[in-house]
Write a structure and sequence with these properties.
The chain is mainly beta. The protein is built from 1 helix and 7 strands. A 4-stranded antiparallel sheet has the order 1-2-7-6, with no helix packed on it. Strands 3-4-5 form a 3-stranded antiparallel sheet, with no helix packed on it.
Length: 149
């Protein structure tokens, strides 16, 4: 007799892990200073990093009309919001998995450095939103050389 071992409920556990990770990743707290808007149905995933001259925010926003995006820089945060369109549900379908996000979204991201908000630039290419915010002169690192005698 051959016994094959199959992990019990592997797909269900992976889905539960994804949902818990997603939930914990969007919980606002004093560590992140992020704000969850009550009227939103989902929040896009983001990457925030800084280079010598810029703070950059990247967000995965597939199937978005970039002309419908609203981006605001205020104080020490960037907020972007919009919505995805619901697919026509005229066809009768049997879904086995449904993970694509639809509906309104809003994300407010705290900035790690002081920026020049008026000089911000945004691009949307292949479903990725990229917001570049030039650092203010006070936020840029200055290198001071020490003269050795």
């Amino acid at each position: 007799m051959i016994v094959l071992r199959r992990p019990l409920f592997e797909d269900e556990l992976q889905e539960m892990h994804r949902e818990v990770s997603e939930f914990l990743g969007t919980v606002p707290g004093r560590w992140t200073r992020e704000i969850v808007a009550p009227d939103t149905e989902w929040q896009p995933r983001v990457e925030v990093f800084e280079s010598e001259h810029d703070v950059v925010i990247k967000a995965a926003l597939p199937n978005i009309d970039p002309t419908e995006l609203d981006i605001a820089v205020a104080n020490d945060t960037v907020t972007f919001k919009g919505s995805t369109k619901h697919e026509d549900e005229q066809q009768e379908r049997t879904y086995y998995r449904r993970e694509l996000r639809v509906g309104a979204f809003q994300r407010t991201v705290p900035l790690p450095a002081e920026v020049k908000g008026a000089d911000a630039a945004a691009t949307y290419i292949d479903g990725m939103l990229e917001i570049k915010l030039p650092k203010s002169d006070r936020a840029k690192h200055t290198i001071v050389r020490v003269a050795v005698r």
